[in-house]
Every structure is written in C-alpha cells, then in structure tokens.
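Researcher: Structure for this, please.
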Amino acid sequence: MSGYRDTSQSARRIIINTNKAPPALGAYNQAVQVGSTLYISGTLGFTPDTMELVGDAVDQTRQALTNMGHILGAANCSFENVVKTTVLLQDINQFAAVNAVYAEFFTTNQPARAAFQVAALPKGAQVEIEAIAVCNIEKGTEPAHVWNPREPHV
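Model: Predicted structure, token format:
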C-alpha cells in the first residue's frame, strides 16, 4: 500500500534534565527528546545554585538562555540546533532589549520565533523562553546526563 508506515513501534522518549540548569518548578521535565527532536520547557532567569531570579528582563533573558544552553548541551545539542522558540514577556516594551540579548545566543541561522506579552509568569519572572531543537543524534548515543526529577537535585 502506498504511503503505509509501520507505526506499531512507538517512539522512544528520553527525559533530559541537568543540574547545570534550575530544576523544573512542577510536574514536568527540563526537556524531552523524541527521536532527533528536543522539546525544551520554558526556561526562566533563575540561577541554578540559588533558585533566585536575576535582575531585570535583560539579565533574566541572558540567564534563561544560559540555562537553555546547559539543557541543550545535556542532549548533545547547541543553539545551532534550535528551530523554534517562544518568548513570553511580562512587558512587551522590553522586546527590543530582550531581542538584543537573544541575538547574542542565536548568532547564525536564527530559529523561527513567536513573542507574546503575558499577564504573569511563574515566581514573578519577567521573561520565559521555550524551544524546539532538531539534534543530529548518532545511532546508539545517549544524552550526556539524564536526571530523574523525582531524585534530589544536586
């Protein structure tokens, strides 16, 4: 039959968590990888050591993207692999300043992106950024570190 695909084998989900980035604040993971696609949960501008938000929207953007970089690294990916982001802003008037920091991390082949102003973000954050990346994973390779969120975050 033309176009038929055997879908009896479900795709394997790999949970990605790293202690180099703040742990998830709820019942979710930092990222989930299915095949070569990595779905990164919204990252905030928390420092991993103190779990406190840093400075203003610019500082939080830089920290959120630094955290995202650690998550990408745990999946053997980089910012070059990101194909789509969503930026949530508490104040859309911060868009230009946030965009300037964003451009420091996405220097070439920038991903597709949406940006929205929202009424509020968790813990009073000013910026949250989520992403989707397509990572070239060689057969048989695993992420650098897989951490179960039900285990203590060290």
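Researcher: Any notable elements?
Model: Confidence is low (pLDDT under 50) at residues 1-8. The longest strand covers residues 82-89.
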